[in-house]
Automatic annotation (TrEMBL), chains A, B:
Molecular function (Gene Ontology), one example: DNA-binding transcription factor activity
Pfam families for the chain: TetR_C_27, TetR_N
Keywords attached to this entry: DNA-binding, Transcription, Transcription regulation
Keyword Nucleotide-binding: no
Domain HTH tetR-type: start-end pairs: 16-76
Species in which this protein is naturally found: Erwinia sorbitola
Annotated protein name in UniProt: TetR family transcriptional regulator
Keyword tRNA-binding part of the UniProt annotation: no
DNA-binding region positions on the chain: 39-58
Superkingdom of this protein's organism: Bacteria
Signal sequence, renumbered to the chain: none
Amino acid sequence: MTIQTNETPARGPSEHNIRDQVVEAATAHFGHFGYEKTTVSDLAKAIGFSKAYIYKFFDSKQAIGEVICANRLAQLAEIVDQAIADAPTASEKLRRLFRALTEAGSDLFFHDRMLYDIAAVASRDNWPSAAAHQQRLRQLIQLIIQEGRQAGEFERKTPLDETANAIYLVMRPYICPLQLQYSLDTASSAAVLLSSLILRSLSP
Amino acid sequence: MTIQTNETPARGPSEHNIRDQVVEAATAHFGHFGYEKTTVSDLAKAIGFSKAYIYKFFDSKQAIGEVICANRLAQLAEIVDQAIADAPTASEKLRRLFRALTEAGSDLFFHDRMLYDIAAVASRDNWPSAAAHQQRLRQLIQLIIQEGRQAGEFERKTPLDETANAIYLVMRPYICPLQLQYSLDTASSAAVLLSSLILRSLSP
């Protein structure tokens, strides 16, 4: 495709603005019609750009979805960071982490269903943004466990890696939008029960 | 509906055979065309009965699906019972329970996809057979925990109910066909990791 041969630097100084404009319009359009049902042609018509022009800035519909998804995941990361920032102990951090993730996921489902659906596609198709998010959460869990081990709150016999993986697995059905949709009515009480079980499993 | 006013005892001695015949034909038909896409009319045509005749024996398509689902769940219950029967400890029973459930669910997905889909509908719509199965598993977990507590294997501080519920919640994403489909590739290693986490949480 000749379009693809345009080098990024040649796209000019307004590229950033145009990318933002496409993402903004796409967010609205996906929000109304759903990510899966929308084509790049639909988007082009809605924005008033040519399809070829959009392809100058994004390789595919997924590339636009990725930006929307990454923006939302950055917000989620901030919510999580704030939730655990002033927790006095590693145990409390784990509880708050689980609660914040469950609440944010449920909020998205009930208040921004179309964005939830993009997140579900991202998770199903293992988009880089979704994979990076999972990796960050997995690392955050490991950091909290290390902190708790150093403070003498948590046992140290189990390999750190195993502990972190297992805890991530307990949380995953409430983090992953594909799975969370089947537990929405019990998610908040489940987060409490499962946090307690996790903390019992960590006791020295 | 006048059909519904026929009392069960008046249906005659061959009722059981005819019910079996309908269930058998329905299992094959659902297996080819899927449960959701098949109507009672389709079934009637395939079996060579009138639709009204089928309605003499089953109130609805779901009632037929329920029998298929209940048959399969009875098989699953037997697999689980056999898996844990000769386990030397309560800990080993929990491990084997988790493994047997995950394996049976994965087998169903890969080898009898249409039946898996009926199970998914049963779970989504909370059919009595699916609800009873979940309740049985929940009780089985509680019995194993009681056994382990009595043997001194497991801690006794946490309320029994809370412990059993939390463990059931850890296992549920691998039991529920709606959720299992998103973890198939990691289900068997997850069952091992999560069993170990559960056992750490139970240590006295």
